[in-house]
From TrEMBL:
Organism name: Neptuniibacter caesariensis
Cofactor: Zn(2+)
Keyword Protease appears in the UniProt entry: yes
GO cellular component: cytoplasm
Protein name per UniProt: M18 family aminopeptidase
Keyword entries, A-Z: Aminopeptidase, Hydrolase, Metal-binding, Metalloprotease, Protease, Zinc
Organism ancestry: Bacteria, Pseudomonadati, Pseudomonadota, Gammaproteobacteria, Oceanospirillales
Amino acid sequence: MSDSLTDLQRFLAASPTPFHAVQEMVERLEKSGFKSLDERDSWDLKASGRYFTLRNGSSIVAWVMPEESDLATSGMRMVGAHTDSPCLKVKPEPDIHRHGYQQLGVEVYGGVLLNPWFDRDLSMAGRVNYRAVDGSRQSALINFEKPVAVIPSLAIHLDREANKSRSINAQTYLPVITGQGEEKASFKQLLKQRLLEQGADDVGDVLDYEIVLYDTQQPSLVGLNEEFLVSARLDNLLSCFMGLQGLLSSDLTQGCLLVCNDHEEVGSMSAAGAQGPMLQQVLERIAPDAEERIRMIQHSMMISADNAHGIHPNFADKHDANHGPLLNAGPVIKINANQRYATNSETSAAFRDMAEQVDVPVQAFVVRSDMGCGSTIGPITASELGVKTIDIGVPQFAMHSIREMAGTRDIMDLTKVLTKFFNEKAV
């Protein structure tokens, strides 16, 4: 097992929320000499400078200024991914007390495959905003780490049709059990207690929070020859990690940029999402002159990295017969005639050429003509910036499940192509 796969497993385990994922990325960037910039401050960008900036603590843009070349003529090599994953999110007033059980109400975030959430050892993590003892407002990341909740299935004896037709009512079936007690518990008090345990000794009152549930099972290498990585949140922390690895493995002499946005799973329409102005505003500060910026964008290319649907051997009829990507057979170019993906022949050809140069096979995915097609940040970014874009990703199984599966060879291969892309002299 390579050191990179070991590091990937650590990254996934340490990133139960977008906030934690961005924190992990920041640590890796800082170790490689990248400097943090606050959007509220004035920026003084230097040639060869390495920088990153955050928004909402859940989206990040990291970039490298070129050594000598003019950005207006050399462009930026851009890779985009997203930090969020479908999950269950704790409601604002979540406390439920029924039949002596303490429960929390949850709402569904994104297109969650709900069945696998039952009978799992769940923990909680996220961001807490609180009033400090000195009266100031502060925020902190929180992670309970150990299993603290569960959604038990109803026994088949009480639902004999469960294996045939059980549907899930998100309002009534999903409140998680966190314990037992005679009286209703206070979730905010629980958060305060955990913050104190984590060492935040300035907590006065918890004002609000963004807390999600997550599976405590660690990422695993699976298969007789460890061909597969199985983990939560592969969609799309896997692309965030590969994009970051590609950037840090490059020679860091070209104009390069990695953007990882929050809120893709719910449409990207937020201040920190791909449909928001974050990337555009960063580019305006990188190239303040409007004409030079337009020239830069037209010399640039965006690789939108988000996992693809691998052909499932038990459900092969869900794929177009000629477009069923196999795990460990190479990264996938995603194509859609109706622009659900931003790929065109020019960007596809560029990606194929780079992959061939580093001896990486490439596959193509087109959804069945009688099925709807999902989308990515690719078309959003392409339309917002006017930059030529391609949608790619590694093939995976169980997309949007609490536990997903991808091929280990594909991870290494796509990282090689992204590294090659960041080193390109011209795009």
